[in-house]
Amino acid sequence: MSNKLIKLLKERAWWVRKETIKIHGISPDTRLASSLSDVEIFTALYYGKILKYSPKDSQWEKRDRFIISKPHGAISLYPILADLGFLNKRELKRVGENGSLLGGIPDTTIPGFETINGALGHGLGVACGMALALKKKKSKSKVFVLSGDGELFEGAVWEAIMFASHHKLNNLILIVDNNKISMLDYCKNTIDLIPLEKKFQTFKWQVRTADGHNIQEVYDSLRELKEEGGDYPKVLIANTVKGKGVPQLENDALCHIRSLKQGEVINAIKNLGKV
Predict the structure, then answer these.
(1) CA-to-CA distance for 246 and 240, rounded, in angstroms?
(2) Segments of 110-150 assigned E as strands
(3) Which of 3, 43, 46, 194 has most Cβ atoms within 10 angstroms of its Cβ?
């Protein structure tokens, strides 16, 4: 990974985090904390060109598929899609308004979103179907999925994990945003997922872990997972901080449902400083 690319990705991640906070100021019902923990993941996938995509044709047959299975945490993808040309940048100032393309929960009317995932626990199962179909068509496209760690409480997720390994879906890459906080408490107080790595290994998944806010680690891990061979699906466990970049949200057990007031939004942007 070149120094030039590292610099670009760091700059883009800082910008995406700032724009995400600005969007929250426009639409306070958006889930800010959950959208801040996955900024570097989105940045590496899109600006690092891990994903194969076409802004001019979001349904391009040869694209990699990307399923956002934690939709409430996908607001940070909006600035990226607008910046890359999937949608008009003016839409970023209208999030949550009547008639706006962009809502608090994304759907397939937004170019770049493959599925509707308002109910948690279904994204990986849908991705398994896509991955199996692509394998049967002998397509070289990959299927990526972003899931929150709290979503792993859902039984359907583990059914999909077993299905993926049984059918040797080596074109499937799951990214777990492991921020350790679900909706109303720390994950460990609800269902303790530790040791998460061993759980996936038990089902024959290829496992990597990374600091989810170290852009080089995230980029290198995703690139290597995409290029790796093997017969089984792959997972990156990205250890993140919910609310990353906004101190009053970071590690607050209730940050998922907290909204910032306008003054707090202004201060949060100001306190981001520079790259």
Answers:
(1) 13
(2) 143-148
(3) 43
pTM for the structure as a whole: 0.96
What distances in angstroms separate CA 262 from CA 61, 251, 267, one per listed residue? Answer: 43, 21, 9
pLDDT tens figures, 222-238: 999 999 989 999 999 99
The answer to whether 195 and 149 have CB atoms below 8 angstroms apart is no
Number of domains in the chain: 1
Compute the distance between CA of residue 275 and CA of residue 69 in angstroms, rounded to an integer.
Answer: 29
Distance CA 11, CA 31 (A): 23
Closest C-alpha among 52, 43, 34 to residue 8: 43
Domain that holds residue 166: 3-271
pLDDT score of 116? 82
CATH number of the domain within which 126 lies? 3.40.50.970
Residue pair 69/146 in contact (Cβ under 8 Å)? The answer is: yes
Q: Which residue has the tokens 């790595």?
A: 197
CB 13 within 8 A of CB 39: yes
CB atoms within 10 A of CB 119: 10
* Alpha-carbon gap, residue 202 to 172, rounded angstroms: 17
Give the three-class secondary structure for 231.
coil
3-state helix, strand, coil in the chain (%, to 5): 45, 10, 45
Rounded Cα gap, residues 168 and 164, in angstroms: 6
224-274 pLDDT, tens digit each:
999 998 999 999 999 999 999 999 999 799 999 999 999 999 999 999 977
